[in-house]
Design goal:
mainly beta, Jelly Rolls, eight-stranded antiparallel beta sheet, seven-stranded antiparallel beta sheet, 17 strands, about 5% helix, globular
């Protein structure tokens, strides 16, 4: 079987992938994502315009990043999210689990309007003010050396969480969006599923500045430089009823 080298966003090295897997992900037991992506997404000067809908509350509906991560030191993640349905929003924006710790890095919304950020099984909580039926812009920045997480909503700083543990998040874990893992890629529950849509979900291996975050909120056509992850179809697999949705190309 022919092997080819691909440069993987999460690492500074090369990963060898079977050419058959590129041509047909089903041969690797993967489901190929079918998102409608802007024709400009491959240009470094533009943002990857991606969007996915989670049409129901289901333990089977999530997005999985296919490629392994390098160890996480400083880290930022941002996304637009539109919440469907009624009542108190619950759902998981990020779950990164390893065999050693299922709560290496978690962003989850629980009952009673609780926003919970977990780093190395250390919990931080606050009340959130996300709105249903509209696009909310969220950013989280993790600074390992300081043991802090900063939270931004709609381009504005909201809160800082402090953590005692300052170890790097290790490589080799499972990265999911839409479900929280009590074991790697498993032990899912309905209440922790997302019911809504996410757009332009991206991550960086550095702490974004407040100015960069504000600018991304003000313009979906701007991305802070150096992202290591976007939800382009070739980097993810979809589970359950999650589907790519058409995104108008507003960045021409």
């Amino acid at each position: 079987m022919e092997k080819i080298a691909l440069f993987v966003l999460f690492t500074s090295s090369f990963l060898v992938v079977d050419s058959d897997c590129q041509a047909d992900f089903k041969k690797c037991s993967l489901k190929c994502a079918e998102a409608h992506v802007s024709s400009k997404t491959m240009k470094e000067s533009s943002c990857p315009q991606t969007a996915y809908v989670f049409p129901r509350k289901s333990a089977t509906d999530f997005i999985r990043v296919k490629y392994p991560m390098a160890p996480i030191d400083d880290f930022s993640v941002c996304t637009w999210i539109k919440i469907y349905g009624s009542g108190i929003f619950t759902g998981t924006l990020l779950s990164y689990a390893t065999v050693e710790d299922s709560n290496e890095l978690v962003i989850i919304y629980q009952g009673n309007h609780d926003e919970q950020v977990i780093a190395k099984s250390e919990f931080g909580n606050r009340k959130h003010k996300l709105k249903r039926g509209v696009q909310n812009h969220l950013c989280y920045t993790f600074q390992r050396s300081a043991g802090t997480v900063n939270i931004y909503h709609d381009g504005t700083f909201q809160a800082k969480m402090n953590y005692k543990k300052k170890n790097k998040i290790p490589a080799g874990g499972t990265f999911l969006i839409g479900q929280e893992q009590d074991s790697p890629a498993g032990s899912f529950v309905v209440d922790q599923a997302i019911h809504g849509e996410i757009r332009n979900y991206m991550a960086w291996n550095r702490v974004l500045t407040a100015a960069e975050i504000t600018k991304m909120y003000q313009s979906k056509c701007y991305c802070a430089p150096g992202h290591i992850l976007s939800l382009l179809p070739e980097y993810i697999q979809l589970s359950g009823a999650v589907n790519g949705i058409n995104v108008a190309d507003e960045c021409n």
